[in-house]
Amino acid sequence: xxxxxxxxxxxxxxxxxxxxxxxxxxxxxxxxxxxxxxxxxxxxxxxxxxxxxxxxxxxxxxxxxxxxxxxxxxxxxxxxxxxxxxxxxxxxxxxxxxxxxxxxxxxxxxxxxxxxxxxxxxxxxxxxxxxxxxxxxxxxxxxxxxxxxxxxxxxxxxxxxxxxxxxxxxxxxxxxxxxxxxxxxxxxxxxxxxxxxxxxxxxxxxxxxxxxxxxxxxxxxxxxxxxxxxxxxxxxxxxxxxxxxxxxxxxxxxxxxxxxxxxxxxxxxxxxxxxxxxxx
Length: 280
Description:
Layout lengths: L1 E4 L4 E5 L1 H13 L12 H10 L5 H4 L18 H5 L1 H15 L3 H13 L3 H4 L11 H21 L10 H22 L34 E6 L2 E5 L8 E11 L6 H10 L1 E10 L2
Parallel strand pairs: 4-6
Antiparallel strand pairs: 1-2, 2-5, 3-4, 5-6
Helix pairs in contact: 1-2, 1-9, 2-6, 5-6, 5-8, 6-8, 6-9
């Protein structure tokens, strides 16, 4: 759950599952003369759309408060508070999607591992947690699944997309879609400078695939107003790209118990946040 100040008296809560839908929307509109559309298209879009769906196992009843009694933000340390549940619901989400699309499940498994091993050693944040035996076991399990799926996909309808190069390119797409969707969902308004952890306006300098045989680039997001940002270079198939996501408003206060918070959570005012991304 992404917990952001909305105004002086209220917090805005954006669920991880709704952030995930934004990532899928970005994936669905990715591609123009400078950026190739991800392939296999439906599988990559599905993976982005569902990558955080496991969070529903906790977000249906988000009864964990942080050390100060406030609703737990995803950067408060979800593994610290949720422990094995945090690992299990990512694994469970992969298993659900696997029944429908093994290629999408492969990308989701890789994304889940990356959140625990510092992006396969490429990122400084989130940190590498594989020193924890629970994380080590989770990563080993998901890496065994990755090897199994890679072998099976090479003999399936997805064989055209099952090379190491293509799979890792699609993993990089996943990271970009996730980082961009985090950036637009984890703050309010869009040009707020309140949040200190999470994607920067260069998406933590993640490599962004362009076209086959061409170098990756870095995106820059310039939040020009409360609901509009300029993205350069611009990667989408429509310009501007309008999008929205649901959120809830709760009092900005410390709660004495999870039950007290859940009362406000379930009764919260629902709002729709709408923003625009454009090339200029």
